[in-house]
């Protein structure tokens, strides 16, 4: 019997995650596959059709009232909202699996560690001794070097490259094609613009852009 899973987030990224689940199912035995039962979203009306993937079932209140075991993946591209939703969902019946696309290439699975609720999309790569916490989002073709440590609620857009021995904490955002050079330590709430190259340690809560990346006053 298939396991049931729902996607929290009925936007474009939610549809991409539905495709990710479909790709994962192709590699599993029938009894281990997920059945996508629909979407949760506090900002989209109940019953709204999300392409051909399913309907919106409700919001956080419906999730917290769910009476059976259910896997839920939070498909949003904001670390702040990822954290907020993960804290609002308190139902013990809800589990947060890690979703890893079959094309992901990990150099050493023995030293690759992660918590719960992480999303790793197609064609991502990881070297050895990589550790990540909970609810991180790695979009397509993200590269993680050796000895990288990620905290939780970090969001990486497509083609981000994180060099070896980078350490970061929580709720950081990396734009498309951005690069972090080796051994840099990143705290919390840092944003790196698309195509930017971070060469020095950033200060928490700031936006950086350019090559080399510099702090932007907004």
How do you describe this structure in short?
The protein has 218 residues and is of the alpha/beta class. The strands form five sheets. The chain has an eight-stranded mixed sheet with strand order 7-10-13-16-19-22-24-25, with helices on one face. It has a six-stranded mixed sheet with strand order 3-4-2-1-5-6.
Can you give keywords for this protein?
single chain, 218 residues, alpha/beta, Rossmann fold, UDP N-Acetylglucosamine Acyltransferase, domain 1, 2 domains, eight-stranded mixed beta sheet, six-stranded mixed beta sheet, 3 helices, 25 strands, globular
Task: Describe what you observe in this structure.
- The protein is an alpha/beta fold.
- It has two domains: 3-97, Rossmann fold (3-Layer(aba) Sandwich), CATH 3.40.50.20; 100-206, Hexapeptide repeat proteins (UDP N-Acetylglucosamine Acyltransferase, domain 1, 3 Solenoid).
- Helix content is 13%, strand content 31%.
- It has three helices and 25 strands.
- The protein has helices at 12-25, 60-64, 79-88, and strands at 3-8, 34-40, 49-50, 54-58, 70-74, 94-95, 99-100, 105-106, 113-114, 119-120, 125-126, 131-132, 137-138, 143-144, 149-150, 155-156, 161-162, 167-168, 173-174, 179-180, 185-186, 191-192, 197-198, 207-209, 214-216.
- Strands 7-10-13-16-19-22-24-25 form an eight-stranded mixed beta sheet, covered by helices on one side. The protein has a six-stranded mixed beta sheet with strand order 3-4-2-1-5-6.
- Strand 24 (207-209) and strand 25 form a beta hairpin.
- It is globular and about 50 Å long.
- The protein starts with a strand and ends with a strand.
């Amino acid at each position: 019997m298939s396991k049931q899973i729902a996607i929290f987030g009925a936007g474009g990224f939610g549809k991409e995650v539905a495709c990710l689940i479909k790709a994962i199912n192709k590699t599993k035995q029938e009894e281990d596959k997920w059945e996508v039962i629909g979407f949760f979203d506090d900002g989209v009306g109940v019953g709204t059709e999300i392409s051909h993937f399913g309907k919106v079932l409700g919001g956080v209140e419906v999730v917290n009232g769910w009476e059976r075991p259910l896997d839920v993946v939070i498909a949003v591209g904001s670390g702040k909202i990822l954290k907020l939703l993960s804290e609002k969902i308190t139902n013990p019946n809800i589990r947060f699996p890690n979703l890893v696309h079959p094309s992901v290439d990990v150099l050493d699975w023995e030293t690759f560690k992660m918590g719960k609720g992480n999303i790793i999309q197609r064609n991502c790569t990881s070297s050895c001794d990589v550790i990540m916490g909970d609810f991180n989002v790695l979009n397509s073709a993200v590269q993680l070097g050796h000895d990288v440590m990620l905290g939780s609620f970090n969001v990486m857009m497509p083609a981000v490259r994180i060099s070896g021995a980078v350490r970061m904490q929580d709720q950081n955002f990396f734009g498309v094609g951005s690069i972090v050079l080796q051994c840099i330590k990143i705290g919390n709430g840092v944003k790196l613009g698309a195509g930017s190259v971070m060469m020095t340690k950033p200060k928490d809560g700031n936006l950086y852009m350019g090559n080399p990346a510099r702090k932007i006053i907004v």
